[in-house]
Each structure stands twice: as C-alpha cells, then as structure tokens.
C-alpha cells in the first residue's frame, strides 16, 4: 500500500523508461538524503540488502541513515541490466571510505519490483566490498549527482 504518492516513470517499463528509472534511483542515492530517498518506496516495501531486511519505508529510511553515516564520501553508479513489465534488474558499483580512511569499491546487483504508482515495492540487493587504495578510485565527481558526462560502469571497465 503506497497511499497517494506516485513516482514516474510507471510500469510497464520500456527500455527508455527503465533507463530513466535507474538514473533517478542513482541520483536519489547519491544525494545521501535518507528521508528523501525513502519516499521512492511503498509504505510496506520489502528489502533484503546483504543480510539486512527492511519491511516498511521507515525501516528502509533507518537503514539508509546508518549506511551513509558509515560509508563516507559515497558515490554510486547504477546501470540497467534487464527489465520487464514492472521489474528492473541493475548492476552497480559505489566507492566510499570508512572513518579510518580505508577506501572500498562495492559491487552489486539489485532486483526491483514496482507498484502501479511507480514506487518500489521490493528491493533485493547483493553486494561485495573490494578494498582499494585511494589512488585506485574512479568516481571523482563532487558529492551529489553524477555529472551527465561522467563515464558509466561499462565505459569504466567495471
């Protein structure tokens, strides 16, 4: 149940609308604003992220707040992998460091299912963290939205 909110583009997805949905999700997560990002999910959203589970929007928001308090200078790139009527699969990578200055590139895949109103009802994520040296970073834009002219995952060889 998602109340009166909507989040275009709406399913069923075309290739173009799926690509746009992925970019909008990337932009939201790069804002690192847990309250704003959580509004893209249904009130009763169901998540699995690594070994953590969320069963509503409030738990998703709390998860995101914890995540971005620990994953500092977070920068994310998402790329469409596949789509169907109301489902999208993405692959992604993000770079971040912990409070000791250790850098990581985290790689993952997500499967998304959307309600008719365009809000995400289900999110299943698998993530692996690779320790990297700061000199190995590839995501160098200022914090926030990835610039349109910044290379995506495929162009970066990721």
What is the total number of structural domains? 1
Distinct helical segment count: 3
Query: How many distinct beta strands?
Result: 6
Proportion of beta-strand residues: 35-45%
The separation of the N and C termini measures 37 Å
Q: SS-based structural class? A: alpha+beta
What CATH calls the topology is: Nuclear Transport Factor 2, Chain: A
Overall pLDDT metric: 96
Largest sheet: 6 strands, mixed
Spell out the helices and strands N to C. Answer: HHEEHEEEE
Instruction: State the name of the first-level CATH class.
Output: Alpha Beta
Radius of gyration: 15 Å
Looking at the chains present, what oligomeric state does this protein adopt? single chain
- CATH architecture level-2 label: Roll
User: What's the arrangement of strands in the largest beta sheet?
Assistant: 2-1-6-5-4-3
Structural write-up:
The protein is α+β, with helices and mostly antiparallel strands and about 160 residues long. It has a single domain, classed as Nuclear Transport Factor 2, Chain: A (Roll). About 25% of the residues lie in helices and about 40% in strands. The chain has three helices and six strands; from the N terminus they run H-H-E-E-H-E-E-E-E. The protein has helices spanning about 15-30, 35-40, 55-70, and strands at about 40-50, 50-55, 70-85, 85-95, 105-115, 120-130. The chain has a six-stranded mixed beta sheet with strand order 2-1-6-5-4-3. The radius of gyration is 15 Å and the shape is globular. The termini are far apart. The mean pLDDT is about 95.
